[in-house]
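Lab manual, section 2.4: Encoding a predicted structure.

Procedure: take the sequence of the chain (478 residues), apply the prediction step described in section 2.3, and record the output as structure tokens. A sample record is shown.
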Amino acid sequence: MNLLKTFSKYVAGSMAALIVGFLATMILTRLFSTEEMGKYSMYITVGTLVASFLYLGLDQSYVRFYFDEDESVRLKLLGRCMALPLLLTAIVSVGLLLFSDTFSNYVIGEPSFLLTVLFCIYLFGLVLDRFLLLKIRMAQKAGAYSVLNIVRKLVYLLLAILLFYLVFEGKSISLILPVTIAEVVVILGALFTERKSFGRRGEGSKDMATSDSQLLKYGFPFIFSTTITIIFHSTDKFMMKELTDYSQIGLYTGAQNIVNLLTQVQTVFSTFWVPVAFEHFSRDPEEKGFYIRINKIVSYGMLVLFVLVLCMKDIIIYFLGPEYRDASFIFPFLAFMPIMYTVSETTVLGINFMKKSSYHVWISAACAVANIIGNFFLISAFGAVGAAISTGASYILFFILRTILANKVYPVRYHSFRFAIACALVSVLATIACFWSVTWWYLLIGAAILIVISILYRDVIADGYSFIINRGKKGKKQ
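Recorded output:
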């Protein structure tokens, strides 16, 4: 029941954040051109890439060793993990300020010292955000975590609208400044939320069980794996910048905003699942049925949601402004990103449990290379649609590699064959969706695929039905 209650809080917060996110998408894609949205997207993409290196993998070390430490010294663990990333962020910021014109020219196509200053603030925000929100997540404070994410989106949306009408009109700075300020607001909110624990920092006189060398040794491979993963995630935009223009990037960003419907589900599940999985493993490393059950439920849920979103693509696209309508042919394959990532979160556990973090490097590198090659050929042929196809295919490879390598070190008998069949079927539908609008025959194909997937996962449906019936009987007795 505690798991269900915690998860329901994440879901409630996620739904609220999703509503605010869609509201922002509807409004901002009507205010800003695809070109200015493309510049803003590059700012976010470069920031995410640089921050992934600045974490030094110590964010993963904090998660891994959290339950190994006594509660009284977990704040000390956080401080140890944050210190080096913050120092490195300061050094990088100085370098960026010294070469401001070169940097801003690359990001938005024009020199701007203001942009570089904002970017440095944004970097500090991303680093602090990562560690402080991890602290809240690991303590399973679902309500606080959800509220902070809602506040982030609201601040961004309100400031963007305000700056558009009062100061910068349709310039990308009207998006860049709000997203930077929103990061600062979230950090202040996180510090306020955790003020009691920070106020007890003097109580942690007990020594940590984990040494600095252990933290660095475990986290070091993540420097490369996380950075390569972000490169893998960002290859599409970087290559579109070189092979097309900011307008195509903006259109692609519009498609990503549609995919956020599924990405939000991914975020909720990952936020809830990671601490729960580690806690379960620390209690009983040999009990693997729990992971299999979660994998089946998540696989079926994400596949059904994927098919429904594809069938409604021509309706959903009206959330975007008229200039972004072609995004309906881009987002079908982009939707593989959250699908494959979410399901792989249930199958990748062995790598992290067995501390084989170096595997993440090889997985990310292989997927990044595959995505670069795919983008090189497909962007030239199909533009943003080609970038989406390449990225979606790379995420399928991402899932396969994560699952295989995790099972090598921590064998779990997942039902991979039926998931493979289901993925093949939804790939057919996604391919059709990339080149055709929704018609009656398209919907028939979608319905047929949904029926087949439900047959493949009939045990999940049966378990769900039994759960509802049992809950109903308990409710009547009370």
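Check your result against the sample. The chain has a mean pLDDT of 85.
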